Amino acid sequence: MMVVGGVCALIHGAASPLMLVVYSMMTDIFVAHELEVQILVDPNKTCINNTISWTNGSKYISETSTFSCGVDIEGQMTLFAYCYVGIGLGVLISSYFQITLWVSAASRQIQKIRRTYFRKVMQMEMGWFDCNSVGELNTRISDDINKINDAIADQMSIFIERISAFVFGFMVGFIGGWKLTMVVIAVSPLIGIAAGLMAMAVGRLTGQELKCYAKAGAVADEVISSIRTVAAFGGEEKEVERYDQNLVEAQRWGVKKGTITGIFRGYLWSIIFFCFALAFWYGSQLVIYTKELSPGGLLQVLFGVLIGAMNLGQASPCLEAFASGRAAAKIIFDTIDREPEIDCLSEEGHKLDKVKGDIEFDDVTFYYPSRPEVKILNGLSMLIKAGQTTAFVGPSGSGKSATIQLIQRFYNPKEGRVTLDGHDIRSLNVQWLRSIIGVVEQEPVLFATTIAENIRFGRPGVTMEEIVQATKEANAYNFIMELPQKFDTLVGEGGSQMSGGQKQRIAIARALIRNPKILLLDMATSALDNESEAVIQEALNKVQMGRTTISVAHRLSTIKNAEVIVGFEHGQAVERGTHSELLERQGIYFTLVTLQKDGTSKVAESTGRGSLRLRSSSHLSNDFEPDEVTSYSDQCNLKILSDGETSPEKEHVEPAAMTRILKYNQKEWPYMVLGSLGAAINGSVNPLYAILFSQILGTFAIRDLDKQMDQINGICVVFCVTAAVTFFSQFVQGYAFSWSGELLTRRLRKMGFQAMLRQEIGWFDDPRNSPGALTTRLATDASMVQGATGPQIGMTVNSLTSIGASFIIAFYFSWKLTLVIICFLPLIALSGVFQAKMLTGFANDDKKAMEAAGQVSSEAFANIRTIAGLGKESAFVESYEQQLESPHRSATKRGVIYGICFGFARCVIFMAYAASFRYGGHLVSSENLHYVIVFRVISAIVVSGTALGRASSFTPDYVKAKIAAAQLFKLLDRTPKINHTDGEKWDDFRGEIQFLNCKFTYPTRPDIQVLNGLVVSVKPGQTLAFVGSSGCGKSTSIQLLERFYDPDEGKVLIDDHPSDTVNVPFLRAQIGIVSQEPVLFDCSIAENIQYGDNTRTVSMEEIVDAAKKAYLHDFVMSLPDKYDTQVGAQGSQLSRGQKQRIAIARAIVRDPKILLLDEATSALDTESEKFSLYTVCFPPQTVQAALDEARKGRTSIVIAHRLSTIQSADIIAVMSKGAIVEKGTHDELMARKGAYYKLVTTGAPIS
């Protein structure tokens, strides 16, 4: 396809030079006719036998030669008209194939590149993902690959066509007259060098600009993924600033790029004009004095070389696209060529026939590739026997999770080896190894599909019976059957529609269905309430039979019965034995157990839990949607996205009004006026051509030699002046419009991001507003809007002045001829309009289709650990490839239509020539019109025609820009359901909270009642604890208090003010929150703590003070960079306990009046938990005294499944199905012997 397309482009390129040959013959005939007319003015001369003679019959001789006459100008012109029509048809056919074939070929290649890139990224080892942020990968796969497409689609064929015109133009020149051609060519290297330099500079600058945009994309992705945390801490403004900083960088590079392009364009044009002056002056010497050239020959040489040079000049925008494409492709191909250290899709490696399950660590040393200075495992040696249950215990960050990641071969040890049944696991097939391992993580990741599909991820090809069996074993069957859609319930992005306990059970079912030889439980029951935990613990105990099981836990009661318990400290296994052996030894394990016993004097069972989480950059931080984001019988999201069922109808977006787009560019009016001035001058240069050209031709019909030379010298001087002016005006146009365009892009991106952060949290629950889709929209929409402003305005002004000036010239000299030619202009314009209309439709479909693919890639990159653990990379690769089918099909269809319009627009010009010269010949012969005027009018109109064509070639960009702008404006105009600006504020904020008969359903799941008449109040300074099983609405009540949502019925009163009348930032400023899965940002520890109060700059003293209260200070001081240590994307470089403490310090810095602790210590080992939970509120004296201290002036709401942490609360409220069943103090409720008593003594369900 590319070869045939290339050949057609070559033929198309040759058409213009071919036309010149016809043109030069035609010119000679016109000049001859004019001379004949001038001579025959004398009544004594006449034309006899095609020779001019005196009337007496003797021949008329002038300067030793006779004159021929009797030119049949109309007949000759008819012949030339046929030539033009023939060339026109050739152009129509060749240009159609040239475009269609190249566009189709490009869309195939882009599809291939996208596939290959995605497949390669999915093959990468975890260490690579630690060093590349998800946002950046998403930007690469959307923006950068689009840039490659721009470089290899129609641009490539147009480049070949222009180069072909350049070559043939010079050939025609040499055939016409080699001397003159050589003179002109001597100047050409100046043009070539400039074009080369420009391409290099633009490529470099584009690379830099892309880097900055990728960084901004990463910020946006991180912020939108963690939107609840950002909102809770009022960090919106701060995030917009952080985003804007990267945009400022990108803007600087963009302006540099525009300016350099302007300078080079000006340089190219001025060289072309100087070249003209020289060629014309020297050529006229050859015509007049040495008679080596005819006037037509001079035109043939001049135009031939000019067409060649112009096409070379016009090939430079293509070079710009190639340079951008190459810069983008380098990054993409570097990834594609990189060999992963651990290739999960490779077929290499042994697959053992029989697996016993002995795992041995032999002197293993390990650190994360992104933090090589911190040793995680330090010479770890231990043996895990087949069929035994081994438990790992130890403080947060001691390397427990790292060992699990090494067993799954997410990383390779730096020294030492890990063996399975005596085989180094590096010699085993990765997919096979992971297929015999079942993993349940502390924060399980579910994919945005149905429950059944999520379980199927565990093992392909399982039957429904097996799925049901697995859910029964995982104690998930009952809650699934209560959902309206049962197993077909959608779980939402990252499982956001399920409560923590439900997600956990689905994850356990997914692990069980694999029937694994090795079971890794990383705190598998951490997100469960007592009742579910007891049942799941039992299920886990059952399935551990005959399997090698490794369990990481802080909740020591869950691992008491393990056959071997290994104590970790500082990356080494310091002790191993059974529960009783280790108690006797009085080492680490003994300390942990003793601490837990102290903390649980009354409640024997539920004790300290939590673990270092697998460093997964796991799902969307639904920051405090941990456990009960959902309702009791947890819900499906109305199947909002189930394929084809009630999928959101494709929205039809009306293109935005140009006036509104320009309104956003208002501040840059001085730049735009200056740029338009430059563009207007550049536009009027073209019609000036028409006058100067025809003047050149006129000089050859002047018979007085001195007069002839004077005129010629004058015209040459005008050319030189034009050259100088053009240089400045092109520079001004490039510089001014790159400023206005880049400032607009930055402003729109920033406003778009601001508008997103302004929306209520419910808006982000809509699957259409997933982080992947939103970051893609931010990246593409704003930069597309530049297609209607910035440089495009320059092009439009340029074209309009060009058209205006040409028309004035044409009508002034010959209105009849002008009218004939004008008939063809609507055709040229129409083809442009039609092309635009067609492309609009495609742009819309393409965007939608690419967003679907973007969601797949975004979900895959964000949850890469879970996918790798399940060995599901290839499933995601297949799904992604399916999503690419429809954009590919529409691109091919678009190529055909684009080709037809393109061919038509190009051939119309030749038809126009045929008609206008034929009619021009008629006017010359019948109305004695001077032939100079014929040329002047035709060149003027053709110039305006090319200007029209140029304007219409921008229509696709312009149209895309208006649609992108409409999308953006729709976002900017949306009024959030929860207004951030209005509302009451008051000085003496006390912190009294009342929930009055609150009813609530999540907007994405209106059929599931989450809160059902919640009534509870807490006085200033009191502690209220919510207790209840997963999904009963505990976290939801906290979200209503934070005003992430408003209740559907009833009220939340804060100091007797209804929450929906309170100013949102003011309210959130009074609240500090520590959630179950804390979200950290990709910056330093100090900056994360400072995030607690975004209204001021938090001093270093306060940070250290808060860190000490949260028992974080000592750990931070042990790190090489101390408080400047980067925490990694979503805190991936820290253990879960360390993240939790940073989150606690962050809440302390805020000094809130209301404190919300959502399962806040679930991730801490007992030692840390004992202190930090209480120190959030008070200095650490004895626990009871400290709690009394804390009650002074601070209202606290605690959500816990572990009853030991909340016994001293003023009010304990037991929730079930979204309402309060009973409330009172611990002693009152124990005495009442109701639900709470039952829960404490047996862990029975509360319903």
TrEMBL record:
SUPFAM superfamilies: ABC transporter transmembrane region, P-loop containing nucleoside triphosphate hydrolases
Compartments, as annotated in UniProt: Cell membrane
Domain ABC transmembrane type-1 positions: 3-324, 673-960
Superkingdom: Eukaryota
Gene3D superfamilies, A to Z: ABC transporter type 1, transmembrane domain (1.20.1560.10), P-loop containing nucleotide triphosphate hydrolases (3.40.50.300)
Membrane topology, as annotated: Multi-pass membrane protein
Occurrences of domain ABC transporter (ranges): 359-595, 993-1242
GO biological process, one term: oligopeptide export from mitochondrion
Family to which the UniProt record says this protein belongs: Belongs to the ABC transporter superfamily. ABCB family. Multidrug resistance exporter (TC 3.A.1.201) subfamily.
Protein name: ATP-binding cassette, sub-family B (MDR/TAP), member 11a
Species whose genome carries this gene: Myripristis murdjan (pinecone soldierfish)
